[in-house]
Design brief:
- The structure is a homodimer of 170-residue chains.
- Chain A has one domain: Arc Repressor Mutant, subunit A (Orthogonal Bundle).
- Chain A is 64% helix and 7% strand.
- Chain A has 7 helices and 3 strands, in the order H-H-E-H-H-E-E-H-H-H.
- In chain A, strands 1-3-2 form a 3-stranded antiparallel β-sheet.
- In chain A, strand 2 and strand 3 form a beta hairpin.
- In chain A, helix 1 runs antiparallel to helix 5.
- The radius of gyration of chain A is 20 Å and the shape is globular.
- The C terminus of chain A is likely disordered.
- At the A-B interface, helix 1, helix 5, helix 6 and helix 7 of A face helix 1, helix 5, helix 6 and helix 7 of B.
- The structure holds a DNA duplex (30 and 30 nucleotides).
Amino acid sequence: MADTGTGPIQHGESLLFLTDEQLRKGIEAMFFAYRAFTSDPDRILEQHGYGRAHHRAVHFIHRAPGTTVNNLLAILGVTKQSLNRVLRALIEDGLVESRVGKRDKRERHLYLTPVGAALEQELSDAQRARMRSAFRAAGPEAVAGFRQVLEAMMDPEMRRQYASMRDGGQ
Amino acid sequence: MADTGTGPIQHGESLLFLTDEQLRKGIEAMFFAYRAFTSDPDRILEQHGYGRAHHRAVHFIHRAPGTTVNNLLAILGVTKQSLNRVLRALIEDGLVESRVGKRDKRERHLYLTPVGAALEQELSDAQRARMRSAFRAAGPEAVAGFRQVLEAMMDPEMRRQYASMRDGGQ
DNA sequence: GATTTTATGTCAGTCTTGTTGACATTCCAA
DNA sequence: TTGGAATGTCAACAAGACTGACATAAAATC
């Protein structure tokens, strides 16, 4: 706990990228970029009467069709009451289908309906467009660094979820 | 609008980093990393009975002491009524001081009190610690790429705010 | 077979933080 | 000086997160 990062400390190689000023810029970059990152989906969701919570559910059901409620809970990191409100709306509106598990009838396996898949497409198209434009502008080396830093920022448990994400099929 | 990025398209140089799969990984990396990014401050804020909105206000008042409410509004991108609730709590609790403008008495200039500065320090220490650890693990080249991509992700107006951020002194 | 655990869903209530609408104060310009 | 624009405050409401309590069904265990 000697190096608090309060100032530039030289160990032979330059550590100027670890100054408080550089860290602060990184922090503010995250703040502003995340707002931009969510702005396009937010606009679309608003037209459909949904929020970010619905987007997250639809995204991960698309990624892992047949996933269970419990699985989704772990990935999204919210309470079941919170997720349930969202899922109920999506199921009632015919965007998500909930099938009772064959092996374990307590489980509900979640799938996007064609309508749900259409919304997912619309949302991810918008989000990918911004990401593609940013990637293209920054170039492949920058993109590699971007991914490296973001991954290093995650907690080990989250990094695990990020890396793998199969499962779900009953 | 020919290239929708739906598949890898070669123009002589490799564009494999722009495939939908790579973009999707970038999107999910943002989602998970942002959650990690906010988790440390969230824990601290909870102990003090505040939320993220208070953090944002305290952060930018620290960055630009003497900033006006209107200025803060533009940076944070919320309505003045929303910000006002947060500021009222911070002022009542003695973390922020609001001084009537000398030139323009309609304006309120905002400053952190010693108590407010202490909370800001606690929050930014935690956030910097995670950022520093991620930066250190990824290395300077990765950090440069990280910043490049995030900046390219912002809207021009936001990028302006991110780059400059002085002002405030009455 | 009885009991416990697991998976899910629901109801009620609270909190944060976003929104809009209405309003007071102050400044400035016609 | 008067009316509009800018700035900020108060009140009320909505979305979406949370906790806690409880119900049901099925699986697992004793």
